[in-house]
Structures are given as structure tokens and as C-alpha cells.
Design a protein that fits this description.
With 275 residues, the protein is α+β, with helices and mostly antiparallel strands. Helix content is 21%, strand content 18%. It is built from 7 helices and 10 strands.
């Protein structure tokens, strides 16, 4: 599936970078064509129908519909993340400038978690994705792509502006949050330290969104993405996608193989089982 992202002017680029730095989040309007979004909505619904129902879903997800590990369901899900502008934002915020096995300024951050979610009839409490509120240091970024309209009635995302600088865990009693409403094809981006959650869906409609969490390569992924990928999907990946999924940072199981935490591109394996 080929995707044409809307071009971002230099002035708009500056605005988005400033929003992330100052407020902790930004919204890119009409970034992905609605025709493309419709295809991803169909793919998401089809994937959800095929999903086994005995997931180990934590209570935190209440009644929400969830698909985990999108990267393992279809390589098409990765394509919607392949935006030069999103890459520029991620490089600036969570790239490791001293990563030794890639050229400078090449993306070396990783996909930490990738899900699709449709809000349930209970709210999702305020939380942070970084796990540790690091304040001025950003280690995680999250990209959310609404596949359907998201508003107060359908259980939209809420954020607490500037909370990414607080260096504190969330205050779940606060009412000082802002609703992030949008249309299909908008893209929401926020700092992993930002306090955020979602409202309950008060309608009978779904509110599907793709949510990709990225992190500095040294942080542990939610799932063992590299070793759990099927050979069929792995063989279709570009080198850039293999780097994104964390194949350069798989730990060694023996000091006699290597003692470094990463490998070079020319050490990538042809088969998943060889990792």
C-alpha cells in the first residue's frame, strides 16, 4: 500500500516542534489521505475479527477493543509509519546520537509497542508511556493515527499540557486535561512523559486508532518483537524496517559471541530463527 503524506511547510514544521517542546504534544491535520485511512480501517477491522478472544488483556484496558503487535499481523501496518516528517521528529527527540553501528543522523530508535485501539465504555486513567518521568529528557514518543472520528462522545484522548516537564507520575484526580479531538487522517504526536488517557465511549460506534510507541533503542520493548516475527513478514522487511523493529539491539546470550549491546547492519540474519 503506497502512502502519500501531506507535505509539511517549514513554518508548520517549526510550529509542531515547538508544540512538542512546550506543550508536550501536537496535532498534524489532514496528514494522511482519507482514502488511505479507509483501507487501514478495513484492515484493522478484518484483523480484529480474526483475533483469538483469549488475550491476556489487563484490566486497565477495561472494555476497549485491542489488537496487539500490529507489526506481526501485516507488514502494511508498518508502512503507515514511514513518513519523513515523523522520522524527523523522532530523530530529534529519541535518537541516540552516539549509536556506533549506524551513520550519524540515521534513525536508530525502535518501535517499542504497536497496537490498534477502540475506546470502551470506561475511561482509561491518566498515565505516561515512558514508565519513568524523566522531565527534560525524552526517551519515548507516541504516534496516534485516528482511523475514525475521535471526539468527546466516542472516547477521545485527553492530555495534560506541559505535564511532560513535571518529572512526576500522573495525578489521576486532576481535571486540568485537554480533549484531543480529530478527524480520520489527522496524526497526534506526544512526548512519552506527557500525562494522557482517554474518555469513555458513550456511543455504539467504534473509535479505532493506530497507536505506535517509539523509544530510544536501549529501552526494553513491550513484546519480544524481533524474535516473534514470522519469517514471511521478516523476509518482506527493508533494512530500515528491521532497524526500527529492534534487530540491531538484540542482546547476546553469550560473552563468547559478543559483549556489545548492538550489531551492525551487515550482521543482520536472513532468518528470524538465527537470532
Amino acid at each position: 500500500m503506497k502512502i502519500t503524506f501531506r507535505k509539511i511547510s517549514k513554518q508548520e514544521e517549526i510550529k509542531h516542534f515547538k508544540n512538542i517542546k512546550v506543550k508536550g504534544f501536537t496535532v498534524i491535520k489532514n496528514f494522511i489521505p482519507k482514502t488511505t485511512i479507509k483501507k487501514y480501517l478495513d484492515l484493522t477491522k478484518e484483523t480484529y475479527k480474526k483475533q483469538k478472544k483469549n488475550l491476556k488483556t489487563p484490566k486497565v484496558w477495561n472494555t476497549a477493543r485491542i489488537i496487539y503487535n500490529l507489526q506481526s499481523k501485516s507488514n502494511q501496518f508498518l508502512k503507515v509509519l514511514n513518513s519523513n516528517f515523523i522520522e524527523k521528529i523522532l530523530i530529534k527527540n529519541i535518537n541516540d546520537p552516539h549509536f556506533r553501528n549506524l551513520e550519524d543522523n540515521k534513525p536508530n530508535y525502535i518501535l517499542n509497542n504497536f497496537i490498534a485501539r477502540s475506546s470502551g465504555n470506561s475511561k482509561l486513567f491518566l498515565h505516561i508511556d515512558s514508565g519513568i518521568p524523566t522531565g527534560d529528557v525524552t526517551t519515548f514518543m507516541q504516534i496516534m493515527i485516528p482511523l475514525e472520528k475521535t471526539n468527546e462522545k466516542t472516547g477521545c484522548t485527553v492530555v495534560v499540557p506541559k505535564s511532560h516537564k513535571s518529572k512526576k507520575f500522573t495525578n489521576r484526580k486532576t481535571k486540568k486535561y485537554k480533549l484531543i479531538e480529530g478527524e480520520e487522517g489527522d496524526v497526534f504526536i506526544w512526548d512519552g512523559n506527557l500525562w494522557h488517557g482517554s474518555l469513555p465511549n458513550k456511543t455504539s460506534d467504534t473509535r479505532w486508532s493506530l497507536i505506535a510507541t517509539f523509544s530510544n533503542w536501549q529501552f526494553k520493548q513491550v513484546f519480544d518483537i524481533p524474535r516473534s516475527l514470522s519469517q514471511k513478514i521478516y523476509s518482506q522487511l527493508t533494512v530500515k524496517e528491521k532497524i526500527l523493529l529492534g534487530y540491531l539491539g538484540i542482546p547476546s546470550n553469550s560473552e563468547y559471541k559478543r559483549v556489545t549491546r548492538s550489531i551492525s547492519v551487515n550482521e543482520l540474519k536472513k532468518k528470524v530463527k538465527d537470532y
